[in-house]
Structure formats: C-alpha cells, structure tokens
Amino acid sequence: MSLISFAPHSGVWLLTTPHTSYALRIDASGAPCHLAWGPRLTLAAAEELAVPEPPAASSFEGRPSVGEELPVDGGVRYGPPSLQVRFADGSRAFEWQPTGHRVHESADGAHELVLFFRDRRYPLQVALHYRVRADTDVIERWTVVRNGGDEPVTLLRADSAAWTLPPLADYRLSHVTGQWSAESRLRRDRLPYGETVLTSRRGITSHHTNPWLMVDSGEATEDHGRVWSAALAWSGSWRITTQRTPDGRTGFTGGVGHDGTGVPLTPGEEFTAPAFAGLFTADGFGAASRAWHAYTLAHVLPHPDEPVPVLYNSWEATGFDVDEVGQKALAERAAALGVELYVVDDGWFGGRRSDRAGLGDWTPAPDRFPDGLGPLADRVRELGMRFGLWVEPEMVNPDSDLYRAHPDWVLHLPDRSRSELRNQLVLNFARRDVADWAYGWLTELVGAHRIDFLKWDMNRAFSEAGWPGQQDGADRLGTQYVRHLYGVIDRLRADHPGLRIESCSGGGGRIDLGILGRTDQTWASDNTDAADRLWIQHGFSQIYPARTMGCWVTDAPNQFTGRGLPLRFRFHAAMAGALGIGGDLARWSEEELREGAALVTEYKKVRHLVQHGRLDRLSPPSGQSPAVVQYTSADGSESLVLAWRGVPRPGDADLPVRLRALTPAARYRDSRTGTVHHASVLGDYGLRLDLPAGDWSSVAMHLVREPEAV
Fold it and tell me: Diameter of the chain by CA atoms?
C-alpha cells in the first residue's frame, strides 16, 4: 500500500503515516502550499481543505507569510524566508515554476515524494523531498537546490523545510536552553506574536539550545493534548524561526547556518539540506517523546539493538596524570565492580600534561606508556572488559608539533588574532587535507590497538571562522566542516565495524539527530551532580532516547557543585540512561565498592528496559515531590520505576504514583521485596513509593508480571 497519494484534478498530495496525515498542493501561482498536518484524513477529505486564500485585507498585508511549504523571498512575502537567493546580476527573490514530481519506495520500505521546481527566470532548481514510513509518524523533509546555470548563485538562506500548524486558540513553545554543565533545561512558554529565533552560531549544536521544538495550544500535558514537534538532523550552526501572525497563523522554518552566512553555488553545484523531521501526536508530550525515541532507535542509530555496556572513564580519577601503572590499577577495580568497557580519558598522548600543550600529537606518551598502549589494552581485555580511548580530533594546542608544522590548518582570518579557548584552536575540517589527516591517524590508532570505543570530544566553539585562500571560504566553511566530520566518522566505522563512538562536546554541546546517525551514544553533560542530572536528563528525554544518554556515577562531594549525595542516589540517577562510572575507585571504601558492584548488577538486570523500553515521565524533578520515571517492555511484562526525593519538608504530600502501560488485569511482583500488586491498582490508584527516610533518597522498583493462573 502506498503511503503517498495524489488527486490530479485538485492537485492535492496526501502523505499518510500510521496515525497522521500531511497534505499539500501546488497553487495557481506554482507555489507549494500547506493544507493539513494532524489526524488521519482521506484524500477526498484533504481536497476539501484546498480552498483559495482570501484576498489580502489591505495593500499592507501581502501574501500570508505562513502556509507555504518553503516560504521564499520575493513578491509580496514579508515573513522569514526559508529560501533566499542572490543571483550573479544582483537580482534576488525566487518565483516558483513546477517541473514535475517523483514518487518511489526505497529498499527499506520508506516512501518518498519529490516535487521539482525551477525559478521562472533563472536556471535555479529546487526539489522538495518528503519521506514517510509505515512504522512511524515522523515525516522527514529536506530541500535540494541546484545551480543549473553558468554563473554563481548565493543562497543567503536555504532551510530544510517549513512547517505550518493549524489554527489554534493559543500557542505554546517548548524547547531547551542552558549552558555548559547546565544543558537541556526544559522551557514551556506562550509563543509570542512575531518571530522567535532559536539558533546556534558556535559551529556546533551547542549547550545553549538544541535544534528541536514542540508547539501545542497551551493545554497539552504529559498524557493529553495535541503536540506538533520537529527536530533538525544537523551538528553545526543552525537556526529555527517560529512565527505567530496577528491573524492567528503559526509556523516554523529551520535549517543550517545562522544570520550573516550564505551558501555559494558554483555552476552545476548542488546543496542538500539536512533532514528537518516533523511529528504530530494527539496524546501529549509523553507520546511525542516516545515516538521520537522509537524513530531514533529504528531509523537513526547505527546499532540500536545492542545493549550499551557499563563503562568506566578515568577522567575524574586521574585528570591528566595518566600512566600505564595507574590505569591498570583502576582497571582492576573497575572490573571488580562489573564494568564492561574501560575508557582512558585525556592525557595519554604526546606532551599532554595539562590542557596547555600536546593536543594534536596523537601518539602514546613514551614516558607514561613506554611500550605504547598495547600492554594496557591487553590487561583490560584480560580483565573481561573492552578498551576505549578519549580523542579530540578537531582541536590543536598552539604548543604542539602539529600546530608548529601546520599553523594554517586552524580556523583563522588574516590579520586577526587567533582566539584561544581552553588553550586550543579549531582545526579546519572543511579542508580535505585536514579531514584526511584526522581519518588517517584515527584508523591507524583504532586498528593498531583494536580499540572498541572512542569518546570523541570537542571542547570549544568556533571563532575567527575563516578559510584564507579559499574562494568564499568563510561561507563554505560551516557546512563543509560538518560534512567532512560526518565523512571521517563514516569512513572510520566502515574500516572498523566493531568500533562504537560517543559524541561529546564538553558534555552536551553536540547532540542532535545528525551526529546520532553515526555514533552510538552521547555525553549529556560534564556536570555529574546527580540532583542536577535529573533536570538535564528530563530535558534530554523530550526527544532523545535513554539509550543514547551517557550517565556517570562520580564521587561525593561533587566536583562541580560540592554537593554530597548518597552513592545509591547517584547510581539510581545514572541508571536512568547508559550507566557509567567516573569516580576515583582508588578512594572508594570497601563498603562503597560492594554497594557499587551490587548496583551495577541490578542495572544489568533492567537495562533492557531503560535502553529499549517505553519511557513514561510520571513526575518531573520539581523539587516539591519525588521525581519518577518508568520504563516498560513492549509486551508489558516488565517495568522499572526509578524515583528520587531531594530534601523533604514538613507537610510534603506522599502521593501514590499512577503507573502506565501495564497489562490490564495482570499482577506484578516487585522483584526486590516480593510484594505483588494488581495492575488495576497500580494504574488507577497508584503505587506507594518505597522511598527510604531522610534527604536525597531514591529507589529502583523492578516489577515483573506474574504468570497467569491455570
């Protein structure tokens, strides 16, 4: 059955997903116009929506700025353009002329519609792509622009797609904001009239916001209400602009780059925008999140079905003081805890003794590893663990052999200072020779030491983002940098199919669907304080699945906040994602080591629920009542409830929590206490949380469905 249908007499296209419909048509001017995005429609019902736009109320209004599939600059359009063009003769604007379409089904079962256009005057071609699948309500959209002439063209703006919402009584915008060590703070605010811009100008996805948004009428909750959302699959600078007009229209457009940059197109050159995927759900923010999680697992991650191993990372134990003897000792303690992947962090290479030198010289330090990394890697494997390594391929210290040999390899502008952040500069991955150099040493390093895992870090934003000697270098740099970054990772993984990679950028600075398409997990934040992490993880989970969220148990008091939290609380917070351990195990007491080993064992029993189950956020980390999340298997046979309480106050209510997604009429046994609960009680009346008394208490409750009585 085709998921794409067409009515030739009305020109209406209908895209169908399991629970939703998306409809559009080409109007009399040749422009592609939006009709519907929401609950399922038949083609005949969608045609009913294909009515002409009423005439403008005055000469000041112009064409509606919300409602086109890709709003362009030109004519009487006054809203934010998704496509803005400057031709060689100085002319601007774009006039739609349809030239055809294509519908096809790919080998993986996806159905794709492509609508082809050109400008009426200039040989500039535009293709609008739509992709739908039978197992998800996520609709992928992107745009391809091609210069078919013999003169250069500049794309001042070339967004992936624009999305139009139906008329609602009001609009509310959900997104995340933050900063380094305080990423993914969820915000839900009434959408103001005019334009609201979410953007990163930093060359990376950024800690400060993330390229996704959700919009509702202001009435949606975790479990109820219609929600429209979209996420951009891009790992560099980006911009999403929402617009709310006085006449009740709302939409948003998004794509690569930020204000002040452009994309040059030489004759015959083509620009392909990344996917800007959209999703409509009718059952609240929780349903939206779960749909994004399922989509990411099914269609984004390279190895979604694998269990993410419990890892140990040496950074907080050693800092830059890394050597073979010390790492072997830590590895023995990690193995005793039940760790499955041992990762050596910064400090193993070149002259790296602090963050001031050595970055870029990627050979093991001979005074610390006299026989290279081989003996350590062998010992780690003897202990039953896989071996991982921290790298930062995109950076260089000025005090390094690499920089002294290639000072022209970094981002810079002639006659401008080279700003150092964290005592380092950014290598220009837009240059093919730089990208090839990085690929070369990475594939050699991974192959020589049979490395199983790379923690790929990126510890500063762009500055002086120029490319001297390259025509239009400053404009080409942003997109080509990311394309080459993706290419290096893709080539590396093709060489080493067993290699797994974590995306890190000083914590959560590079998390998006683009990087997740070629890595296996992310480092959500450098802040490992478990209380802060509950907020960070709450925002992270709005779009991205728990399987991709690296979470560490580190020492108390925490190095960021100075807060001392119980080991069990720290473990339970980290068990909500991909569990890791980052404390100084040499300082852990025997009691802490025993408790930690028991909690690692407990996590392994339930990680299939965390990493592949359904997530329900039962209570947010508000600080007034316990924060609670629930993970449930697809068949409802098992469920894990994690709950955390901070500092209780006299009079705080101890309310039961209503569970979700259990099998009706079944009974569930708490594997920790043996208590048996009826699903009807758990779902309709609630579960009393068995939280210990005192501050910063937590509990993990594993519920297993009892066999039916014969």
Answer: 83
